[in-house]
Amino acid sequence: MTEQNTGLLDDAGTKSGERILEVRDLKTYFHTAAGIAKAVDGVSFSLDRGKTLAIVGESGSGKSVTASSVIRLLAKTGKIEDGSIEFDGIDMVHVPERELLKLRGSDISMIFQDPMSGLDPVFKVGTQMVELIRAHSDLGKKEAYDRAVEMLRLVGIPDPEARMDAYPYELSGGMCQRVIIAMAVSCHPKFIIADEPTTALDVTVQSQVLSLLRGLQDELGTAILLITHNLGIVWEMADDVMVMYAGRTCEYTSMRELYSNPLHPYTWGLLDSMPRLSDTAKTDLKTIPGVPPDLRLTGTCCNFCNRCPYATEECHRRVPELKEVEPGHFVACLRQDGEHRLVRGEVNHHE
Amino acid sequence: MSETQAAAVAERPQVASGEPILSIKHLSKDFRLRGGKLFSKPQVLHALSDVSLDVYPGETLGIIGESGCGKSTLGRCVVQLHQATSGQIVYGGQDITKLSGQPLKAVRKDIQMIFQDSYSSLDPRYTAAKTIEEPMLIYRTESDASKREQRVLEVMREVGLDVQHLQRYPHEFSGGQRQRINVARALVLDPKVIVCDEPVSALDVSIQAQVLNLFRHLQQERGLTYLFISHDLSVIKHISDRVAIMYLGRVMELCPADKIYAHPLHPYTKALLSAIPPESPFDKKQEIKLQGEIPSPVGEQVGCPLAGRCPFCMERCRHERPSLEEVEPGHRVACFKYHDVVAE
Predict the structure, then answer these.
(1) Of A232, A243, A266, B324, which alpha carbon lies 20 to 30 A from B96's?
(2) Which residue ranges does the record assign to the ABC transporter domain (chain A) (predicted)?
């Protein structure tokens, strides 16, 4: 990619704190029988210790693949084609599998969407936790058990000793997600990847789990990469936000900046199409017409051009680069690149 | 408040004061669970207890609650996919829970359902055309094949499907389009009432907005009545005229959709609202935390279902069950806290 991207990473560094993760120009493609799907096509971002970066996007935007690429947890057909991922001084793209196994679960842990499938149904919760802790530390059986109980208590599970003997099916979804979080933090990771951690949960449980994650982050100084499609969760949790669409970054800036001054037409569409509780008028929701593009065919134009109300002819011919339009605010849009400014809600004269 | 909004608010009580199209009276649904051990007594799961709701023609009644609160069971009882344990569902002057055979079939033609999972609710071996045509064959509404085809095309256009996709199979459609096929299938019989069980929960926000708008337009054009079930408060508030909040098989609060946000009464509703992620990073929210988890609906149920978690729980709540009573015009709450105020 261009010089501007390097600028992005350097600039973010001034936001204080120590860099823990740096991803540059990541490309992850899936080689399927029907062709090459460009799931992630040139994405760069960075994350500091104790901070939260949220990746927002619809299904198929590449947000989960980006997260899986960071710890190389990809399906067999998926391959990191290009780019670099540096985690705490380690080159994650080239580190041998054996080293990676040590990192996963200890320095980096992952929380997935479905709490039930994250636990093995035939083993007791306690057994699974002790196994994880012992695999990543030199603790004995007894110490590991005590540590597991302590972790369960930390995540707010009542009567943790009794729960150690429970099987996953005996616990509710919210409880299982707490166990997963307890496992995720039991080895004091520096970095947690939370892939839609609360999507399968009810709102009251969701708010408990989110405040739990925030509390643990404050206590342990963990960096969190939060993947979500819910902008409400972003406002609650994130420091920085990256909006993804069809494998590419649309907009990358701080959370508050994104809320008060969103610049990419896709971000506008996303914000407008959410029904709001405070709305009193019973009118139609604004929608983004059409559907996301086929990932096998992207890369020759702006991926959003077919659904964008502001698209010009040029948008159908050129791929927009991610540019710093305002200090610390990066946008990939040909009509919003600093020189040209687009006004939200403006009629497209080019049609 | 603008004029149109004021008009909409003024209009609503009038809608609700007419004759209900569908009246649910003291409906209960129990499921018998076999005991875990041999010879152990079967236990009873109370999925719905004493639910009474009136649905008025042309309105959308939103039903919201967390998983396991019985909202889907209620929807299924209304379309008679579940046989209610006790209580009545009155539609067109007759109690449909007692019906069977031809009379039931006639009622089912009027009350259609749309499910959450758009993929598993479509037959993967049926094309879109065949799926939409099938209800007409089952209910024998149209004997002429060419007229049926005409009708299929008509409905597909109405829900915004491309008629060129007539011969496509479900897997060739996107999630939003599949849900449109489901809507088309429900509409083809010209139903009066549609039970929508989380129809947009599996869709992305931009697609969700498209489908919600579709529901709205169809209602305006055809005067449909919706029973709209969802766990998403902002979706429910957007689409509904009135909202029923359910918890553990009971209706806790029933009020106009605007009031649920502006003026919620029940502690559970307040807790639910405070748990929703903020609409902006600058929202300062006052969180009302409920302690613990949702209690089990299995076994004997005593007192208010929220008693164990409610911050305002009184001694009386543990033994007595509050009924759903009107505390303000058009606003019903099942909580002693408000009943007493009204009594005084």
Answers:
(1) B324
(2) 21-271
* A96-141 per-position pLDDT tens digit: 999 888 888 888 998 888 888 888 999 999 999 999 999 888 889 9
* B169-179 pLDDT tens trace: 999 888 889 99
Task: Report the side by side order of strands in the sheet with B225-230.
Answer: B111-114, B193-197, B225-230, B60-64, B242-247, B250-256, B331-333, B325-328
Distance CA B163, CA B188 (A): 15
* Lowest mean pLDDT segment, chosen from A13-22, A285-294, A306-315, B295-304: A13-22
- pLDDT exceeds 70 at position A5: no
Q: Does domain B22-31+43-265 have CATH number 3.40.50.300?
A: yes
State how far the Cα of B70 lies from the Cα of A286, in Å rounded to an integer. Answer: 32
Domain boundaries, chain B: 22-31+43-265
User: C-alpha distances in angstroms, A154 versus A148, A150, A160, A179, B222?
Assistant: 10, 6, 10, 10, 54
Mean pLDDT of chain A: 86
**Residue recorded with tokens 């019906």:** B99
Amino acid identity, position A272: D
Residues 209-268 in B contacting A (C-alpha not used; CB under 8 Å): 209-210, 212-213, 216, 231, 233-235, 237-238, 258, 261
- Among B8, B205, B276, the residue with its CB nearest the CB of A273 is B205
Q: How far is CA B70 from the centre of its chain?
A: 10
What string of DSSP letters covers A30-61? EEETTEEEEEEEEEEEEEETT-EEEEE--TTS
A199-225: pLDDT as tens digits: 877 888 788 888 888 888 988 889 999
A257 CB contacts (<8 Å, ≥6 apart)?
A326, A328, A329
Q: Which residues of chain B have pLDDT under 50?
A: 1-16
d(CA B19, CA B10): 18
Contact at CB, A204 and B275, closer than 8 angstroms: yes
In sequence order, the 6+-apart residues with CB closer than 8 A to the CB of B102 are: none
Q: Are B223 and B230 in contact (CB under 8 A)?
A: no
The answer to ipTM > 0.95 is no
- Is residue A198 classed as helix, strand or coil in its secondary structure? coil
pLDDT digits (tens, 9 = 90+) for B283-318: 766 677 777 777 888 888 888 888 888 888 888 888
Q: Closest Cα to residue A177, out of A211, A151, A217, A206?
A: A206
Q: How far apart are CA A135 and CA A104, in angstroms?
A: 11
Contacts of A172 in chain B (CB under 8 A): 293-294
C-beta separation of B264 from A277 below 8 A: no
Q: Identify the three-state secondary structure at position B319.
A: helix
